[in-house]
Specification:
Strand content: 15-25%
Number of helices: 6
Largest sheet: 5 strands, mixed
CATH architecture: 2-Layer Sandwich
Radius of gyration: 16 Å
Shape: globular
Mean pLDDT: 96
Strand order of the largest sheet: 3-2-1-4-5
Number of domains: 1
CATH topology: Nucleotidyltransferase, domain 5
Number of strands: 5
Helix content: 40-55%
Structural class: alpha/beta
Oligomer: single chain
CATH class: Alpha Beta
Distance between the termini: 22 Å
Length: 175
Amino acid sequence: MDIMVDLETLSTRNNAHILSIGACTVFDQSNTFYVTIAPGQNRHIDEHTVYWWMQQSDEARDIFNHINSGNSTDLPLALVALGEWMSEVADDNPIHVWSHGATFDCVILADAYDQYNIKLPWRYYNSRDTRTILDISKRLGAYEKPERTGVHHNALDDALYQSEWLATALAQLRT
């Protein structure tokens, strides 16, 4: 089972404060997961990333209104829910977790699971990187970027877009 994950955070470190988690199945994007995370995680916040957020669109920054409204989940509960969702959609198949970059989303999630002593819901060697596939696709002349939809820097919208992009690149590589 191929699952795309995307995070919105307040840092770029492995122990970044997580604002939201978005995920979807790659080849059937009807299975989705989205949660915003409550404050109080004891994770890293970087002033440069906070400044970067202040420059994003109103739609992207709406996540802060959602979090401040009290409609968010504690990080350990969100991690458990993500793991349960992954297990449900995988239906006992191995889980391959894709992210847009090898050193960000999966690494931060793994660090958070470790912080709370929660078992990582995928095998560490089943992390996958879209940028490698997209680079290979581009080098082979089979690269086509789909039209962007959704809100940039909304974790679920980004996961959906990245999974569409990945599926497109893989289909092009097959031909």
